[in-house]
Amino acid sequence: MDIWQRLGLKETGDLAAIKRAYHIKLRDCHPEEDPEGFRLLREAYEKASRPPPAMSQATGPATELVHPAEASELTALLSLLGDASRRFVMTEWDEWQTSLHSLSLVQQSQLSDEVLQRIFQWQWLPAPLIEHLWQALDWASLLRRSGDMQKKGEFLDWWRQAPLAAPLEWLATLDHAHQRAVLAFYQPLLLSLDAGDRNGVLGLIYHSTLPIVGDHPDLMRLQLRALQAAGDDGDATHRLSLTLALLAQEQLSEDDWRLLSDSALRCGKEQLVMRIAETLAERGYEALLTNHLIGWYIRCEPELARWLQALAIANHWPTTRSAFWEPQWLMQPWLQPDPLETWLHAQMVSLDKTPLTILALESIPGLRGALARLWWSSEYGTWQALEAALAQPELADAEGGWLFLVRLLQRHARRKLAERPDLPLLDALLAGYGKDDWLTIAPPSAEQLACATPEQWLDYLRRYPLLPDAWFKAIAQRASKEGWDEKMMQGEHLGARLSHQRYYSDTVLADAWHGESWPGCFRWALFYYARPWTPNQHLDALRQSMGSLPANQDDTPLATLLHLCAQPTVYQAIIMDACARWPQQYVLSLALRHQTESLKHSDVGDEALLERARLNELPALAALIDRRLDNEPDLACTIVLWNLLLCHKASNEAYEYLLTPLRQRLETLRQAQGLALEVYPYAEESLIYAYLQQDPDNITTLEELEKHHPNEAAAKFVYPVCYALAMLAHDFGSHGFQARQLDPLYKQQDDLTPAQQEVSSLVQGYLEDKLNTQLEHDRAHAKKRFRLQSGAQLIFVSILSAILPYFVFPLEPSLREVLASGSPYWVEYYSLGLDMAAMLFMNLYLMWHIFRAQTSPRTSRNYLIWSLIWLAIAFSINSAWLAVPLWLGHLVMSCRLRPGALRRGWPRAFYKQGRMSLSDILD
After folding, report:
1. H or E element that contains 913
2. CA-CA distance, 230 to 238, in Å (whole number)?
3. Nearest 5°: phi and psi at 554?
4. 3-state DSSP: the chain helix, strand, coil percent, rounded to 5?
5. Most exposed of 2, 489, 562, 612 (fewest Cβ within 10 Å)?
6. Helix H segments across 752-882?
7. What is residue 156's predicted lDDT score, i.e. its pLDDT?
8. Which residue numbers in the chain have pLDDT < 70?
9. Backbone angle region of 547, left / alpha / beta, with phi > 0 → left and psi within -120 to 50 → alpha
10. Computed from CA positions of residues 201, 205, 207, 208, in that sequence, does the dihedral angle turn out positive or negative?
11. Contact call for residues 307 and 405 (beta carbons, < 8 A)
12. Is the CB of residue 171 less than 8 Å from the CB of residue 88?
């Protein structure tokens, strides 16, 4: 392929055409992407640009090189740069660039070198001019060279991309002095601002000898940016004049208004600040307006600044200053009795701690209360409540910055109303929400249920949380089928919390009071179901809005909750009775948890809590466990305490709200200590770490434990405790128990640690209650269980059985002789029959009663086999001495019997006694 094919031209001497073809082909041959193609194209261009060789010696060169200093192109360039009226006119530069097409590469190179020597004297020139020179003189080739030329190329490459401080068209209207002054000052200033060089900006502002000139809007913006970087140390008068000048311009962008807002706040002129605020409000720049007002009121009116800050965070608007970190707000707002302040605090730290009902906001007077109700209704109120909140007369009294806040919240509320779904079928039903007979309203039909989308139903659950039970069941059924049931329970609002409780339990809203529709029923329902998640310090505000409870509601869960609200931070024992009477009322269950937390943080000591736990006060036990978990507890002992709370006879479903969080903390500790094992052997101490299942039925049974023999370490504490827990969790009436397994708990306490001794004493108390309860039940309903012989009685019978063989043996005739005679007349052996019957009766009597009293199947089986074998041997050999092993077996087993270790009943002496101590039962 020849040079003309590479250039895509026919052979010609037109240098301009050759250069145009070269530049066209150069687009497809980038030197970095295709270096070989670029090299061949460059060689073709250079060969095509060479003049033809001379034909003879007489003929001189066709073209003589012109000295660059005398070249017309250089003269034209210097003339263009020196003329202030033409310097920034791009058409002039285009014409000059076109004039270079007739130059050869050598001439272009010479021109480039000459311009390079002069251009650095014009460093105030803007980037577009350098870009033209970069393209016309091919200065990109400098980047491929080395040494100083490469450095010059890099500088020129940066120069041509530098930002422009003002439009070239405007600069062209200035004279040379002003052009140079503007560019010499603003170009470095712009570069320093873009680079974030604050020191460079300050140096230019305060130490520059050039006057700050120029009234173009871009230059005003640049100066304001510089003053903004300088902070409050800038010239206030100059800042004010720039702000007013830029404010008078038309077509300002949002960035311009942000700059004006900052400048006005730094000037400190209220009239200017309010003027900008009005304009921002008119133009709908809500986020910028909020930031503007926060910056102004954060010092003089911090309460308004907190409102604005909370509103900005709730709407995800970025804020430049935070009212939360101001010195006057560095306190603990969650301890304040004002629910509004707590709400604002939570919003400022992006927490969802909104009041669950508007009841807590009704008692707040004046404009603050009206604003709170408007904001709350926008997010959580019914549509009717939102319309009513917009019409509150207190909103018309707002002045100053509060007026802007009112407008912002009103605009937010109207946007919410505009998003209201058009569902006339449901709106007709929901119009009755809030009336006292609302909870008895008929459920929606299938058509009404299907008319709303899942997103719309989720919004209705947020705005109408107290839906009747039939409504909720129908909605939950649809949600479960369509897979959005989990979304019903997401969020911190009352609708989500109620949905979670109603979805997983058979909660009936009206079970908390008597009757279905009595005066004030709906408001009291809101109070009752919002109370569990209302902070204690806000109860007064909630309670003030309620009035007096009707007298016919005294003996109800609602009345109990109201009584607890009178002293929310003081533990009250009535909560135990309430949870025992109404275990399905989860509101009381949550109140139980609050009461337990109050007891935990009270001045009651651990010893007092343990003593109250011994008296079956379960909240005291839960508080004690919680305290132990806060103080690096003995994990094994704490797990035992948790299981005692689980297995207690008074522990019902209401106590799950105590058991669940405690179990989660215990599991976390177990995993942190590396005790979350796959297998927990019954014979080892690690068995106790398996006892973290929140179901008493899952506790290991007595039968399973009795199959295993613990090692020495486990037998000291863990195994007896697990055995006691099995007795507390399961019915041992038919199976019985082995009292000796409990000996370490009450006979060998000196071998236990102090923590284990405390647990052991509590286990003994609960076990004593369980055994006495079983005794009382058997006395009333199973008197036959008190027919067992005691160990002493059986020992006496065993002694008699030892004397009897000497009267019976030897048998005459012997049993072997009788069998050998084959006589059918058994009457002849009447005396022999009596002796055998007496012997059999005495031994079988002992065997039966000892067998009934044993709890170990293995021991019972071995004893029966032993007795039957030696009884047979004694009759076979016909010797009283061979009955001695039989008697010894009876005696040993009778001595091992203990009253508590009775499989199928109790000793007769237990029947007439009242409450018995643990030692009396077991010993």
Report:
1. none
2. 13
3. -65, -50
4. 70, 0, 30
5. 2
6. 754-781, 791-808, 815-821, 830-853, 857-877
7. 92
8. 1, 30-32, 51-70, 206-214, 233-234, 321-337, 352, 787-791, 815, 818-819, 822-829, 852-857, 896-904
9. left
10. positive
11. yes
12. yes
263/755 Cα distance (integer angstroms): 68
Q: What are phi and psi of 907, to 5 degrees?
A: -65, 155
Gap between the Cα atoms of 44 and 691, Å rounded:
89
Tokens encoding 831: 């005396």
Name the token pair of 5. 């094919």
pLDDT at 249: 87
Q: Given this model, what pLDDT does residue 333 score?
A: 47
pLDDT for 822 equals 65
* 788 strand-pairing partners: 907
pLDDT digits (tens, 9 = 90+) for 663-705: 999 999 999 999 888 889 988 999 999 999 888 888 999 888 8
CA distances from 856 to 2, 617, 709, 771, 851 (A): 110, 35, 12, 19, 9
First to last CA, the chain: 117
Global pTM value:
0.70
E strand or H helix that includes residue 155: helix 148-160
Residue type, 200: G
Could you tell me the two tokens for 543?
A: 């309670």
**Cβ proximity of 781 and 846 under 8 Å:** no
Q: Looking at this protein, which amino acid is placed at residue 182?
A: V
Give the alpha-carbon dihedral of 336, 339, 345, 351, to 10 degrees.
130
Structure confidence at residue 46 (pLDDT): 78
Confirm if 501 and 507 have CB atoms less than 8 A apart: yes
pLDDT for the residue numbered 322: 64
What sign does the dihedral 228-229-232-235 (CA atoms) show?
negative
Helices (H), 483-614: 494-504, 521-530, 539-544, 557-565, 574-581, 586-600, 606-614
What is the Cα–Cα distance from 890 to 873, expressed in whole angstroms? 16
From the list 515, 429, 506, 505, the residue with the least C-alpha distance to 467 is 429
Tokens coding 1: 């392929």
Residue 265: exposed, middle, or buried by beta-carbon count in 10 A (0-12, 13-18, 19+)? Answer: buried
CB 348 within 8 A of CB 309: yes
Q: Looking at beta carbons, which pairs linking 147-152 to residues 24 or more positions away fall under 8 Å?
A: 152/116
Contact (CB, 8 A) for 15 and 101? yes
Q: What is the pLDDT of residues 868-878, one digit of tens each?
A: 888 888 888 88
The 3-class secondary structure across 161-187, one letter per residue, is CCCCCCCHHHHCCCCHHHHHHHHHHHH
Separation between Cα atoms, residue 906 and residue 791, nearest integer Å: 11
Q: Which residues pair with 907 in a beta bridge?
A: 788
CA 337, 500, 575, 524 torsion-angle sign: positive
How far, in Å, CA of 619 to CA of 167, rounded? 78
Helical axes 521-530 vs 557-565, angle rounded to 10° = 60
Q: Which residue's structure tokens are 């007739």?
A: 102
CA distances, 641 to each of 399, 534, 592, 725 (Å) = 61, 30, 18, 10
Contact 302, 326 (CB under 8 A): yes
Close Cβ partners of 598 (under 8 Å, ≥ 6 residues apart): 568, 569, 570, 571
Of 842, 846, 845, 841, residue with least CA distance to 893: 846
Backbone angles phi, psi at 596, to 5 degrees: -65, -40
CA distance 269 to 223: 19
Q: Are 575 and 595 in contact (CB under 8 A)?
A: yes
Taking the alpha carbons of 433, 438, 444, 449 in that order, is the dihedral positive or negative? positive
Q: Write down the pLDDT at residue 56.
A: 39
At position 258, the amino acid (one-letter code) is R
As given in the structure block, the two tokens for residue 671 are 């995993």
Specify the DSSP element, H or E, that contains 280: helix 270-283
Residue 906 is predicted with a pLDDT of 79
